[in-house]
Amino acid sequence: MAFIKKLSRKLGTISDDIKILLQQLSPDRLDALSEALFDLENLADLHNWLKNIDEQ
How far, in Å, CA of 41 to CA of 45, rounded? Predict the structure, then answer.
């Protein structure tokens, strides 16, 4: 998945658990994450985004 490569480039190594979660995201959620990417500064931000995905 090309998007995971972009996340890795910005945030560092993405764990396999997070990769699995990302691969399960719907197209709408992936679109939301692509917009949020500019606000994410580290892996903790990504984890928090994924944890709170239902609130978005």
Answer: 6
